[in-house]
What we know:
Blueprint: E1 4-10, H1 15-25, H2 30-33, E2 40-45, E3 48-54, H3 55-71, H4 75-99, H5 107-124, H6 130-150, H7 155-162, H8 169-183, H9 189-201, H10 216-228, H11 236-249, H12 254-294, H13 299-302, H14 307-314, H15 322-330, E4 331-337, E5 340-343, H16 346-359, E6 368-370, E7 372-375, E8 378-385, E9 400-403, H17 411-414, E10 419-422, H18 430-438, E11 442-444, H19 449-452, E12 458-462, E13 467-472
Parallel strand pairs: 8-9, 9-10, 10-11
Antiparallel strand pairs: 1-3, 2-3, 2-4, 4-5, 6-13, 7-11, 8-12, 12-13
Helix pairs in contact: 3-6, 4-5, 4-12, 6-12, 8-9, 8-10, 9-10
Amino acid sequence: MQKYHFIHEGSTYPPLAIEDIMSCWCGDIEKTIGLNESPCFLIFQNEIGRMYSIEKNYQKTVDLVFNKINKDKKYILKIKKMFEARQKKVFDFIGRLDSVKWEKISNGEIIKIKKQYVKLYHWFAPYGEPLPYFLKERLGEALADYLLNDIKILPGEYEILTMPAYQSFLGREEAYLYKIVKGYTFGSADFLKQVKKHARKYQWLLFDYASLIVDEKYFFEKAREFLKKPPVVIDYKKLKRDRQSLIKKYKINELYRYYINLFDVLVYLMDKKKEIFTQLHFAALPLFVEAGKRLGLQLDDVRWFLWDEVESALSGSRKLDMKIAEKRRVFSAIKFENNKAVWMPEKMLEILLKEIAEDQKTELKINEIKGTGVSRGIAKGIVCYLKSPKENGKIKKGEILVAGSTSPDYMSAIRRAAAIVTNSGGITCHAAIVSRELGIPCVVGTKTGTQVLRDGDLVEVDATRGIVMVLERKFPPLQKGD
């Protein structure tokens, strides 16, 4: 029986927004990794997109990358150097996109700019996220086994050793906003001027691939919250000193010191990639809006086509039918293989779904699930399952945020959560990074969290042990196939 690797899920991944990164993942990352994850499948059911690859291909790539970092201790630093060398070109292109008068250029010029976008995307993407993605579980398992089981350090000490001494771009934005709160009288003309300037600088902050655009009101309300409760401030210099003290205390050997130090680089690659690409996706938004407008489609409709289809329509060789977009939202799938994306016939999709369901079926009546604890602590609360960032307003303060995975556009919900539980992820994922910065318990990589846990369930999240326990169910468990 074919086994599948669950990658991600969410409702903020329409085809036009995500086809470039998926194509890179199934082709261009071979430049840096040596293999790619081809084929991958992006399946849409009622606008929720779920991504899968073949388990044996994923594990083969994980093994290859883990062997590489052990054979060549400078391998990741070489990738980081190339990643940094290419950043300026991407920022220059973002600046060019921001200056385009989209309504005044021809269809041919729109197509030309998009080709430049794709070429740049595939040139840069392989040097950011792939290494953290393929190393997150294997590296985490190796460190946990050695530190917790072999030399038996305390959970709090383990968190210090595995917490990267790197501030995320979300953390930096909050630090800048807090400086405004401390430096100006709240509500004064100077304060409002600074918040407006801050909002212009960070309007892309929660966009991710195709999600939220934040405005002055968002940052004003966030600043108001900081008056009541300042953001958590991590002393990264102290963290580095504490880490070195623990390494010396436990006489941690050279190999595991190397693994510990890798976290700073891996989290940097993951976070910086997200920061740059979020700005790139946001800067390209007017291109898609204008293309849709010329084809008689709203943005939410044109996003349900691949760029080849949009380009053909702009060139006059075909028309885009809004009914097709509506159908794809409800039930469709794309197969990505060797840098190419094709829509799957419905019969093939039905076969694929049956195979995935058979492979990943789980006992839904269980009252305990396990994952990786990435920010220690214990929290008890009511489950709030968010299918997408569009549901952020649904979570109440003190509830347990449950999601397939998190991304920057979940931040307004995360700040109200008592703990985070996700299906996917590892010690370098977004949920791990922000939960540490906010100081809230977090368990990632549960695989079945969104199936077993339901809205209204009372649960206890023990992130120190990586366990989520259902204490009381509001509704009966889901049945297979629900």
